[in-house]
Amino acid sequence: MKKIAFRTLGCRLNQYETDALASRFHTGSYQIVDFDEKADIYVVNTCTVTNQSDQKSRQTISQARRANEDGLVVVTGCMANNHKESLLESKNINYLVDNERKSSIFSIVESHFRGEAADPEGFDKDLFSYEAAYKTFHTRSMIKIQDGCDNFCTFCIIPKVRGRATSRPQAEIIRNIREVIDYGFKEVVLTGVNIGRYQDGDTNFEQLIESILNLPGDFRLRISSIEPDGFSERFFELFAHPKLTPHLHLCLQSGSEPILLKMRRMYTAKQFRHMAEKLRSLYPDFNLTTDIIVGFPGETEADFMQTKKMAEELAFSHIHTFKYSVRSGTRAERMDDQLTEKLKNQRSAIIRKISEENKRAYIRQMIGKPQCMLIERIGADGIARGYGENYIPAFESQRFKPEYLC
Asked: Does the pLDDT at position 406 exceed 50?
């Protein structure tokens, strides 16, 4: 039995794809081991959203080669698409597999060990032919419903490395969810690049959500990171359903109208505020988290203060703060008024501090309120710990069911 190790960098979409690959290898009688152990195969699922992501990906590839000089190192993910030529020259990599062929990694590895031709370019492109993941690195099951993006924000490399927006057929999604529920998963997380733009024939995102919520079974549904555009009033009403968790990671990026325009975002700060306030008016304990980019080209002190104000007033319980990173081939790369790293660091520290203050305030607000908890672990003290439906830490010290607490 050959040993295989996985390491995932970046988004939940990458995490879903790694989980599905791990399940396929486990079915194929491979032993999954920790990435720090000596293995026969190492699969590195990379990220390229920032320069720091590229650096971490390269370090992880080198780590895999150091772990076993004779091991097979397979590199995939967005960096494989974005830096294909330079990675192909690396002596640390045996196979470089682009995102479109990632689901073929099991077949590539099998072909390699049979002594057959295993050129990744010879395998078909297929974004959705992943088996339902039963052997995962998480207590919840992620489901890929969409890939790619048509928005072409000026700072973003994703349309280049993930391609144009493509939606997975609704029937396949429903079948996949039924399978993971049968495997015993109690939380399903929908993921993709721009999931709010899901469209399969006449079925849009809101209609897909409704069809999932109507499935029988003891599970809850969580929506992954989503862009704040294109929602109807029906979208807000869906959160009244007991299976849909009251939490959204709604991507703001900036609170400044001029900066949002330069970013080519598909909404205004005013529209974003309306969405956030509507959710809180309908569901007072609703948990909002977000992404913010600081130091975008031309961001003035006044622009940043607008972002700071929204971060404080909308009370996001977590803010994933990015320092703007130049991505080759994007329109923002060619913009004037690039900011210094020193200024980016200063503004990043301010937003991170607000995030920590907001988090503490939100958790204090929720203390003592009952939650349905998905158990992450049960400690030696007998206390079950995990996350409630609002996606905040929770625990139960009295009675618990083996998999799910209500």
From this structure: no
